[in-house]
Write a structure and sequence with these properties.
It is a single chain. The protein is 67% helix and 4% strand. It has seven helices and two strands; from the N terminus they run βααααααβα. Strands 1-2 form a two-stranded antiparallel sheet. The longest helix has 32 residues. It is globular, with a radius of gyration of 18 Å.
């Protein structure tokens, strides 16, 4: 097996934009002084997640949801095999990782929606507490996702973080995607920048 292109540029850019926007939102969540930055991070996260849903339908092979539709049994089997040290190869998302992606999309949209409603004072204290609960749950899922990346990377002897930076993983030639789709990544960056700027508009 050789190094092959698996992750297109919009997928990689979206991944790191989501990391950055969630980190900023989390760090500024309790600060009144940085409130607009918190809101801007939330808007950015929504823009990235909406694009990710679109890209999950229209993107390249491993970005599409159809490439990582796994049953709970498949996810359990993968985790069991991981604990046994079995070296299973997945060019795209593995069965356990796929569930983290679905959860992060759902939690991210729910957290952003409840945060917007709280910011617009559409709900009481219960809504603010629910928003904080969703953000904390999302952080827990992120922690599990990172732990899974570290463990599976060590057991499979593959640097998954580097793959999400340069787009390359180990695989067979026929598994590779043909293009990085650079223009779509530029569009995503523009969309994220516009979304962030909305928070600072009067």
């Amino acid at each position: 097996m050789n190094k092959i292109l698996v992750w297109d540029l919009p997928t990689r850019v979206g991944h790191w934009l989501l990391v950055a926007s969630f980190a900023v939102a989390w760090l500024t969540g309790d600060s009144e002084e940085w409130r607009l930055f918190h809101v801007a991070a939330g808007y950015t996260m929504v823009a990235v997640l909406v694009f990710r849903i679109f890209w999950g339908i229209a993107g390249t092979r491993y970005a599409r949801f159809t490439s990582f539709l796994f049953s709970p049994q498949q996810a359990r089997d993968y985790l069991t095999g991981l604990l046994r040290g079995e070296n299973s190869h997945w060019a795209g998302h593995n069965p356990a990782g796929s569930y983290a992606i679905y959860l992060l999309i759902l939690l991210g949209l729910a957290a952003a929606g409840s945060g917007w409603a709280t910011y617009e004072e559409l709900g009481g204290e219960w809504l603010e507490e629910f928003h904080e609960f969703l953000a904390s749950t999302m952080l827990a899922v992120v922690g599990l996702h990172v732990a899974g990346v570290v463990v599976s990377g060590l057991l499979h002897r593959e640097n998954l973080v580097r793959g999400m930076i340069n787009g390359y993983k180990i695989g067979h030639g026929e598994e590779a995607i043909s293009s990085s789709r650079v223009l779509w990544a530029v569009l995503l960056l523009g969309l994220a920048g516009w979304a962030a700027s909305v928070a600072f508009q009067p």
